[in-house]
Amino acid sequence: MLFACSKRAIRLKTIDSCFEDLKDSRLVDKTFTVDEVRDMLDGLKLVVRGEVETELVNTAHTNMLLLRQLFSQAEKFYLRLQTDISELENRELFEQVAEFEKTEFKNQNKVTVKPKLSPLNEGEVSELLNKEISRLQEEKDQLKGRLRTMETLAMGALDEKTKAERSLKDLQKVQGEQKVLYAASQRDLQDNLVSAKHDLLRVQEQLALAEKELDRKFQQTSAYRNMKEILTKKNEHIKDTRKRQEKYESDE
């Protein structure tokens, strides 16, 4: 606004000087003919018209360059700005701008020049984007490491469950011959199942935390879906084991 006011004031002074030049150069006689007056006015009209046209062209080009700077800087950050041409004919907004100019610059001699924003150059933008990319890559690597840890824990729990099922089957085969040993083994098996259940609960809790973290940072990956499928199968195996155990205890 201050820049536009300054340019407008300079152009108005130029137009004033056109009239003063006419007065000083042509208005030297006391009387003029009609043709002389018409000639002076035509010449003045050409000069004033040229000054006004120059100002309008400069204003339009200046606005275009200003918008170009803003849009260029926005595109470097992957922003897409849009304009509403209809707002340029909004009389209410025009009046608000005029009121702002009137109150803000009513005493132009006391206006202090405010610091301007320096445009971002290509090097600064590239450095900023590179830092952000490096930070996101580091977070991605950390999450991948945590995911691998969760997968290892899940596979360990699955191995324990498989061992428990194998032990149960072996005990069922020798049930009639080793009843006393089976009772002790049954307690051990129950303890193993309880321990495996506790381990599974801890793994599920850790996986839930990892899932929330990954949902905020990345879209669903194949490793995540595989891990979820493993947990689903594990739960199905546990349910199946419990059903077999209940059936066995009922037979016993």
UniProtKB/TrEMBL annotation:
Coiled-coil ranges (or none): 126-153, 186-220
A Gene Ontology BP annotation from the UniProt entry: negative regulation of protein localization to cilium
Family matches, as InterPro entries: LZTFL1
This protein's record includes keyword Manganese: no
Region (Disordered): 229-252
Chief localisation class: cytoplasm
Annotated localization: Cytoplasm
Entry's family note: Belongs to the LZTFL1 family.
Function noted in UniProt: Regulates ciliary localization of the BBSome complex. Together with the BBSome complex, controls SMO ciliary trafficking and contributes to the sonic hedgehog (SHH) pathway regulation. May play a role in neurite outgrowth. May have tumor suppressor function.
Subunit structure: Self-associates. Interacts with BBS9; the interaction mediates the association of LZTL1 with the BBsome complex and regulates BBSome ciliary trafficking.
Protein name (database record): Leucine zipper transcription factor-like protein 1
Gene: LZTFL1
